[in-house]
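It would be a great kindness if you could assist me with a short task in structural biology. The matter concerns a single protein, recorded as an amino acid sequence and a row of backbone structure tokens. The record follows directly beneath this note:
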Amino acid sequence: MKHQSPEQLRQAAAIVAAAIPTAMTRRERLDRWAELLDEHGGSLEALRRIEYLPDDERRAYRGANTPLNVAYADPLLRADGLKGETLGDAMDYFDMTAEDAHHLLCDCHYMGSLTGHGLAGRLRRFSGGGGVIAWARTAFARHPS
């Protein structure tokens, strides 16, 4: 173990603090989560029936191998302010409403096949702004041939 003076420790801490970028925008946070999900790639557990939970239970919801775990495993998102692996932590950090969380993460929208790549695409469309309603309009809009 290397012994350092308090001043040396303060300087080292300042270097580490300077290496952490300034707070990310909402879009940057969502895009980072999408990148992590793309890297994960494999199947994930969707959140189960969260639309039926009382608000306090919904906010406390957590599970193994969920998109919430993928986000919280990232040191950059944690350093930026993601506090934990609960749905409430994600809703606060990613600035999502209960409706947004339901449409993006609930099992009723995936028919048992939630993948990192699939959710990453949905998050990218969602991060474009306007929330779930705007996302749905673009996702289901008819495009002329």
Notes: The radius of gyration is 18 Å.
